[in-house]
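Holo prediction. Input below; ligand is alpha-L-rhamnopyranose.
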Amino acid sequence: MKKKLISLMLSTALTAALLSGCAATQTATAPASSEAEDTSAASEEPAPADEAPAEEAAAEDTAAAASGAAGHTYAIVTKSAGNPYNEKEASGFQEVIEAEGGTCIVQHPESATADAQISVIQSLISQGVDSICLAANDENALAGVIADARDAGIQVLCLDSKVNPDSRATFVNQAGVNEIGQALMDAIYDLAGGSGDYAILSATSQAANQNAWIAAMKTIAETDSKYADLNLVEVAYGDDEPQKSTDQTQALLQNYPDLKVICAPTTVGIAAAAKVLQDQSSKVKLTGLGLPSEMAEYIGDDDAHSCPYMFLWNPMDVGRLGAYTSIALVDGTITGAAGETFEAGSMENSPYTIVEAEDGGTEVILGPPYEFNPENIDEWKTVY
Ligand code: RAM
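Structure of the complex:
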C-alpha cells in the first residue's frame, strides 16, 4: 500500500509537472488526487490507492483543460501564513489551476484577521483577477471588500471557512458541519469515559468554520442525553498561532484540575496541545482535527501518547475542489446555485453537486471526516 502510494505520488507529480510546464512552484509536493481521495472515505481503512491510475487521471484532467481556464487568473486567499494546513490547501488549488492551463495567485495573509485579508483582496481587485477563493477569517467583516470585488466582475467563493451567503457564490466545505460535530463529541465521550470535564481549544473567535463546528458540538451535547454527564468548562482560543495555542493549553491544565479531555478542532491548536500534554506526561487526553504529518508522534493508545485518535480530510483536496469550483464559476458552467453540477477532473466524487447550506447559502461538500488512529497513522503521516 505504502509503495503504491509513493509510486502514485511520484508519477502524478511528474505528470503534473509536464502538464503545467515550468510554471508550477508548489505542485511538486502534491500527491495524486486518486490517493488523496481515499481520505474522504468514511470506512475504518483507507480505500486502495490503485483504483484510478495516475495516467488516466491526468488524461481526464487534460480533457477538462479544454474548458477554458487558459487566459484566466484564479486567486486563493488562505486564513494566514505559517500554517501548514493552509499551505497544503493552496498547493492543491495551484496544482489544478496550472494543470488546467490557468494562472494561479496564492496569497497567505500575514495574520488570521479580517483586516489582513481586506488588504490582500484589495490588491487582487487591482490586479484584475477572474476569481478569488477565500478561507474567510470573519463571516461578515469582509462584505464591503467582497462587494467591491464582485462589482469589478470577480467571482468570489469560499473554501474551508465561509462568509455570509450574500457575499459568496458558493462554499467549498471540507465536510458536513454536523458530521464533524458528531465525530468530535463521540470522541470526547469515549476518551472521557462518558462523563467529566472537557475543554475546546479553537483557532480565532471569529473563524466561521471553527464556530460552526463548536455550535454543532454544543447542540449535540445539549439535545442528546447520552452526553448529559459531560461538562464543557471553556472554549479557549489559540488564534492558530503555535505559541498562543501552547499557552492556552497550559492555562486549561492549570485552571481545570479535573479536566479529562481537550478537543482542538484546528490543526495548529491540536499540534501545540499534543506537545504540551505529552511533554508533561499529562493524563488529559486529546482529540480534534489534525494533520497526520504533524500528529504522528503523538498518536497512540498508551500513556506515552497524548492523542488516541483524531480526524481530518485531505487539505489538498479542499484546495483542488476550490480550484475546479473557481474554474466552473469563471467559465459560466455554474453560478453557485443549489442543484448545479460540475466536473472536478479525477476527484473521487466528480461530478460534484452544489447543495443548500444551513445558513441559507449554498455549498459543495468534499466528503466525510476521516479518522486517524494508531493503526493507520504511519500510512498517512507522509501523505499530508
Ligand atoms: C486550521 C485552520 C483551518 C481548519 C483546520 C482544521 O488549520 O483553522 O481553517 O480547517 O485547522
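Residues 177-312 form a domain with the Rossmann fold fold (CATH 3.40.50.2300). That is the main takeaway for now.
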